[in-house]
Amino acid sequence: MREAVLKKEIADDWAMFEEDTTEELRHGICVSNLAYCVAKQLGLYEDQCHELAVAGILHDIGKLRVSGYLYGRDEDTLNIEEMKYVRMHPRLGYEILIRYDFSDDVLENILYHHENYDGSGYPENLAGDQIPMGARILRVCDTYTALTSDRPYRKAFDSQTAIELMIEEVKNFDMKVFLAFQAVIHDEELQEKWAARSFRIGIAELE
C-alpha cells in the first residue's frame, strides 16, 4: 500500500514536471518566433533578428536556478522575499550563458528583458534608450506570450484581451516596438511564422 502511494506521488511529480517543461519550452519558442517577426517589422538587419531569436528561446533560462521556488507552485503563493529571488532570473540567466559562446547582444537582451520603458522594471531600472532595442522587443513579446498562455492561477487570455491589458500598461513598452508588435499580431500570414505548434515533452522511464 505504502509503495503504491509512493509510486503515485512520483508519477504525479513527473507529470507536473513534464507539463511545466513543455509550457516553458513552448513559451520560449513563441517569444523567439514573435521577437524575430517584430524585429523584421522594425527593419532590423537579418543578423540582429537572428540574435534576437536566440535570446528569445533562452530568455528565461535563469529560472532553472529558481526552480525551487517556481516548480509546482502558483504565483499567489510566493511571498515578497521569494519574489525578490525570482526577479533575479534575468541576471542568473546572463551568468549561466556568459560562460558560453553567445554574443554580447544575446546576453544583454536576456539580462534586460524585464526592464520597463518608464524605468520601473528590473534588474537595473533602466529607462528609454538605456534599454537595448532587443530587450525592448523581448519585453513586449514575453508579456503577450505570457498573457496568452495558461498559468496555474488563471486560464490564458484571448489575443484581443491580452492586447487590451498591455495597452493599460503601455508605459512599460517602447511605443515604436509596441506598434510594430501589433502589426505582426494582426497579420494573418505572419501568424504562421510565430505561433508555436502544439507538442508535449515526455520523460522516458528508465528500467
The radius of gyration is 18 Å
Number of strands: 0
Largest sheet composition? none
Instruction: Name the poorly predicted regions.
Output: 4-19, 71-76, 199-207
Q: Estimate the global geometry from the Cα principal axes.
A: globular
- What structural category characterises the helix and strand content? mainly alpha
What is the helix fraction of residues, given as a range? 55-70%
Series of H and E elements: HHHHHHHHHH
Distance between the termini: 22 Å
Q: Which whole number gives the mean pLDDT?
A: 80
- The helix count comes to 10
> How much of the sequence is in beta strands?
under 5%
Commentary on this structure:
This protein is mainly α and 207 residues long. It is 60% helix and 0% strand. It has ten helices and no strands. It has helices at residues 2-41, 46-58, 67-70, 80-86, 89-97, 104-111, 133-147, 159-168, 175-185, 188-194. Helix 1 packs across helix 9 (175-185) and helix 6 crosses helix 7 (133-147). It is globular.
Task: List the SSEs and their pairings.
Layout: H1 2-41, H2 46-58, H3 67-70, H4 80-86, H5 89-97, H6 104-111, H7 133-147, H8 159-168, H9 175-185, H10 188-194
